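Researcher: Please predict.
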Amino acid sequence: MEAKSADLSALRINRSAEPAPGATARRWVLPIAVAAGIAAGVAVALFAARGSFGGAIEVHLTPATLVSPSQANAVLVASGYVVAQRKAAVASKGTGRLVYLGVVEGDRVKEGQIIARLEDSDVRAQLAQAEAQLQVNQADLQNAEQTLKRTRALADSNFSSQAALDSAQAHYLQVKSSITVAQAVLKGAQVALENTVIRAPFDGTVLTKNADVGEVVAPLAASAFSKAAVVTIADLRSLQVEADVAESNLSGVSVGQPSEIVLDAYPDVRYPGYVAKIVPTADRAKATVQVKVAFKSYDSKVLPEMSAKAHFLPLSRSKADTQKVIVVPQNAVTERGGRTVAYTVSGDRAVEVPVTLGRRLGYSVVIQRGLAPGTMVIDSVGDRVRPGATVKVR
């Protein structure tokens, strides 16, 4: 029994004894290390999964553009609008109701061509009255002339007094003057009738139709229910681009400088041009100066009020500057395994395309082989962009 009691007492834990220094700290070292290792492994796995299977790489695409080297080397680019230098809002000098309109938008007109007519019944009545009054005065003149002849003959024979002769002569001059007045009134009525006819002031194209048959047309459109201009026409042979150039960049522009004009509606078409005029005043609100760029040649695609960009080119250009080349941003190409490559996107995967580079043009680089014009490529290739990588196009 004593032996059993001794053995059992040896198995008891002495809770009153103090733990050895550092024992508690050592007790937690191993679990913490294990947990940290697991967390690191999970993080590495998540990162690998993010790069390979989840979380696609966000990229932005840009087209391989066909440009001329001179455009890429443009000293300045300014935005503006196509404006007809010869343009008119055609209106009537008289007031009346529109009874005829012979043109619509897009019609070509010749100088002097009748565009519209106003109601003219009242003006024609005034014209008829003026013609009748002139005939009456002409009859009076004939009568006064005969009376003067008879009175002069009687005065020469001493059968009439000098007073009668003076009165007959004065009446004759008065009637003659009234004929001059009647002729002026008749001329005024004819002009008023002509004012009811609206003619084209020059050869041009109808841009807008501002009034319709039945509406009242007035020179100044004094009423809310009257129209001033009937149509607006422009000479499409006088189109120029009016662009605003910042004062700080004005030193790079001179009259006669070659330019290329690009319409926002047709970005792939380049129209040759030159600086026609630098307007000799500045806009203090915008700190800009207006520059007019004339077309050397253009087609029917160019329309007034289109937005355009004027590329001001260097004064000295070689023949090679007129040959178009394919360019992409410099960051769109990179070195991979000793090869120069660009990346396109197929579905949601990056596709590697070997390319051959040419010279640099500004912030772009010429692609001699490997890409066709219009091919969309990733504009900034980073280290994570690899063949087959999952990408998401912004």
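Model: Residues 18 and 49 are 50 Å apart (CA to CA).
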